Amino acid sequence: MEPIKVVIADDDEGMRLIERRMIEKVEGFELVGEAKDGEELLDMVEALRPQIVFLDVEMPGKTGVECGKIIQDMDPSIVMIFATAHDQYMGDAFEVYAFDYLIKPFKVDRVMKTLERARDRIGHVNDTPLPVPAKPAPNAATGRLMLHHKEGVSFINMSDILLVQRENRATVIYTSGGGRYETGDSLGETEARLDPQVFFRCHKSYIINLNQINNITPYGRWTYVVQLNGIAQDALITHEKYEELEKMFS
Length: 250
Known about the structure:
CATH topology of the largest domain: Rossmann fold
Number of helices: 7
Shape: globular
Radius of gyration: 19 Å
Number of strands: 15
CATH superfamily of the largest domain: Response regulator
Strand content: 25-35%
Helix content: 25-40%
Number of domains: 2
Strand order of the largest sheet: 2-1-3-4-5
Oligomer: single chain
């Protein structure tokens, strides 16, 4: 199994050294880049495609939270772990769906546990699933979606759509049978064309087919992972959206 690629970002060279040594202690991880500010971090994420990013909240140029929002649009599957000396930014960090929030100075055991949980997340080894509403969505999606892209136009049966997500700054639609369609439309524009009784905006970066939910498991403090039938990709759902989902099926 290939090692999990990690990038760290902190303007403090000593802190980067500490993080580097901690990462090197855990088997299965490879540190592929170190950034000293937000702009350098974003360039590294674009070029190196890491699976985990450690980022300080307070950095020159773009802050960690600002970088987190951009990274989320680039690839929402990247695990973001915020590291800072201040806990007042915790709410902001979890608003961009941080996997964890570490307070400096770090305790080694705490970092090790976070890395192990992140490894499980990336390997799709999940905790005990949360209850999934058993009642089916009221209606099946009907009709077809006309999708414009750089190669021309595709027509997709709405009933085949499993997941819509932001990916590499584009909107990508995954369908049953392994179909993948990319469009320049925003997630909001795509959402407006889908049946709201079947498709649910569970997260800033994801829309899911309610009929195809397999299970829901914990991710970070206020976020969960949604696994869908017939597809390897999964989605994130916020705590608020999970509660909204429960009400929809009650």
